[in-house]
Amino acid sequence: MQELLDKYKSVAVENVTEWFKVGVITDFPENSGACIKHKTKQIAVYNFARTGKWYATQNLCPHKMEMVLSLGMIGDKEGIPKVACPMHKKNFSLEDGSNLAGENLKIATYPVKISDGNVYIGFSE
Ligand code: FES
User: Fold this and answer.
1) Domain limits at 105?
2) Which one of 4, 58, 64, 82 would you pick to mutate in the ligand 1 pocket, going by the greatest count of ligand atoms within 8 A of its CB?
């Protein structure tokens, strides 16, 4: 379990060593999530069209270790963009991955870059 979680570490934009192309903008539904794979990781990508922003997080929900976050509803809580896990509705910030109820659960976040209609996720390994 812990081993699975340890695969996912947040990447700050200044630490990106690889911009991995995951598709074109139209591959990603608006105001929703989609799942992509990078090496052994499953990454949830969110096209937050309502605010014109994109986010990426681990797809793994740390609550019960389910690969489901890309299926969660996105929205905002007091101005913080968030995803609600579809299983038990725990809410995570899309900006820093923290649990919005203050629980000791955190998800990794990754930078997203849009260039010439292509979508890239930043990785450091
Ligand atoms: S598995 Fe995600 S909230 Fe329980």
Assistant:
1) 2-123
2) 64
In the numeric block, the tokens 């899309």 are attached to 94
* CB of residue 63 inside a 6 A radius of ligand 1: yes
What total of structural domains would you count in the chain?
A: 1
Residue 90 corresponds to which tokens in the numbers above? 């725990």
Which of 58, 60, 66, 99 has most ligand 1 atoms within 8 Å of its beta carbon, as the pocket-test mutant? 66
CA 91 vs CA 85, 88, 103, 112: distances in Å: 6, 9, 10, 20
Q: For 48-99, how does the pLDDT look when each residue is reduced to its tens digit (9 = 90+)? A: 999 999 999 999 999 999 999 999 999 999 999 999 999 999 999 999 999 9
| CATH number of the domain bearing residue 54 | 2.102.10.10
